[in-house]
Amino acid sequence: MHDLPQVRGTLTPNRALADLTWMRVGGPADVLFQPADLDDLCAFLAALPADVPVFPMGVGSNLIVRDGGIRGVVIRLGRGFNSIDATGEQVVAGAAALDAHVARKAADAGRDLTFLRTIPGTIGGAVRMNAGCYGAYVADVLISVTIVTRAGEVNELPAADLQLAYRQSNLPEGAIIVGARFAAPKADPEELAQRMVDQLAKRDETQPTKDRTAGSTFRNPAGFSSTGRADDVHDLKAWKVIDQAGMRGATLGGAVMNVKHSNFLTNAGGASAADLEELGELVRKKVYDSQAIRLEWEIMRVGERTGSDPAV
Predict the structure, then answer these.
(1) Which of 126, 131, 140, 231 could disulfide-pair with 223, CB 3.0 to 4.6 Å?
(2) What is the CATH architecture assignment of 232-302?
(3) Which of 61, 111, 262, 298 is catalytic?
(4) What residues pair up with 166 in beta bridges, in sequence order?
(5) What local confidence, expressed as pLDDT, does residue 190 receive?
(6) Mean pLDDT of 201-216
(7) 60-78 residue pLDDT tens
(8) 167 in catalytic set
(9) Nearest alpha-carbon partner for 160 in 213, 227, 69
């Protein structure tokens, strides 16, 4: 790789990524960059040769890094990007702020972003994936997002520019989200606190929160409008079609489709990234063969396979 620009943050060559993802699998990044702050990130990207790929990574909650690792520079935002301000009419959060922390701090200020409480990961990932649950989505409350372009320039984009849809957004190529601004409805802090307690109890009852997963594996297959809101008339759930294909509890190597919730691909111990991805592809095939429904991955899979990995 080219000589890299000088930074005030941390540059770590050949950095293992498995311990930075919830699935605990995957090979190394050529380089991991943890910028000290916004200026450090901008200067680094501006000086980085244009042919060096970059991949922004949050806390790895909805991610499989393949066993061959990631070529180029993985950028992981930290303390310089995790601020939360809920004191005004809007809630402003850094991209590295945890969704749960934003929900709690907003609730303390009487602002309702409670749907974020049970979503694993960071605000950057929540915006990129138009995260949502309990009938609410980022698209409902996002005002704008602040990005750093691949050229190192800071831009603020209105939410409409992201064309947010079900579990997806349209961001400029190579852009890194560094912050977001939300219009959170006013509500009673005590009521919001109780709602989050109830949501956590419901999540723990229905989802394998103690297991090594990356959240929902597949998108719900149909019945969602362009705004990302569910259409109850045509609503299909991924776990239902997985069950109907007989794949609840299916295993491959150390990978398993969780018995408690079959849309949670799980590292039950010793799984490789190849095990997880191959099992996911097997589930997709079984669902299509049995019901003519094409499941789409919700978990992001990135990086290179090793020579022994199947081409899936």
Answers:
(1) 231
(2) Alpha-Beta Complex (3.90)
(3) 298
(4) none
(5) 97
(6) 92
(7) 999 999 999 999 999 999 9
(8) yes
(9) 227
272 is catalytic: no
| Domain 81-191, second-level architecture | 2-Layer Sandwich (3.30)
What value does the mean pLDDT take over residues 245-255? 97
Give yes or no for residue 231 having a pLDDT over 80.
no
Whether 298 is a known active-site residue: answer yes
The ranges assigned to domains in the chain are: 10-79, 81-191, 232-302
Catalytic residue among 61, 169, 216, 272: 216
Which among 197, 208, 307, 220 has a CA at the least distance from the CA of 257? 208
Helix then strand then coil, % of the chain, to nearest 5: 30, 25, 45
CATH number of 10-79: 3.30.43.10
> Which DSSP category does 135 fall into?
T
Q: pLDDT band at 38, cuts 50/70/90?
A: very high
What's the pLDDT score for residue 134?
Answer: 80
3-state secondary structure of 128: helix
Do 218 and 236 form a contact (C-beta atoms < 8 A)?
A: no
Q: How far apart are CA 277 and CA 252, in angstroms?
A: 10
Tell me the pLDDT tens digit for each residue of 286-297.
999 999 999 999
pLDDT value at position 228? 46
Q: Please name the amino acid found at residue 264.
A: F
Give the whole-angstrom CA distance, residue 267 versus residue 257: 9
Distance in angstroms (rounded) separating the CA atoms of residues 73 and 212: 26
Residues 6+ apart with CB under 8 A from 27: 16, 17, 18, 65, 66, 67, 68, 69, 70, 273, 303, 304, 306
Which of these is catalytic: 111, 117, 167, 248?
167
196 pLDDT above the threshold of 50: yes
**Residue type at position 145:** V
